TrEMBL record:
GO biological process, one term: mitochondrial translation
Family statement: Belongs to the bacterial ribosomal protein bS16 family.
Gene3D superfamilies for the chain: 3.30.1320.10
Organism ancestry: Eukaryota, Viridiplantae, Streptophyta, Embryophyta, Tracheophyta
Species in which this protein is naturally found: Papaver nudicaule
One cellular component (GO) term of this entry: small ribosomal subunit
Keyword 4Fe-4S attached: no
Name used for this protein in its record: Ribosomal protein S16
């Protein structure tokens, strides 16, 4: 199972809102996700800035989880 970090689209038409998710690479964009890692709002707010929030502790744990999957899959092919 290959895990990818990508956006999942939410919101209405012409008002997108995205979640940063960890998902299986074979699942569709808005399909089953392993974990929600943050959010991204591409539309500027009242201050003119775009907003992004990430859960860095969960992001680091997913990164270590993905590297362990990669390492174990390389061992299986040797």
């Amino acid at each position: 199972m290959a895990v990818r970090i990508r956006f999942s689209r939410l919101g209405c038409r012409h008002r997108p809102f995205y979640r940063v998710v960890a998902a299986d690479s074979k699942s569709p964009r808005n399909g089953k996700q392993l974990e929600v890692l943050g959010h991204y709002d591409p539309l500027p707010g009242q201050d003119g800035g775009k907003r992004m929030g990430l859960k860095f502790d969960r992001l680091n744990s997913m990164k270590s989880y993905m590297s362990s999957l990669l390492f174990s899959s390389q061992l299986n092919h040797v």
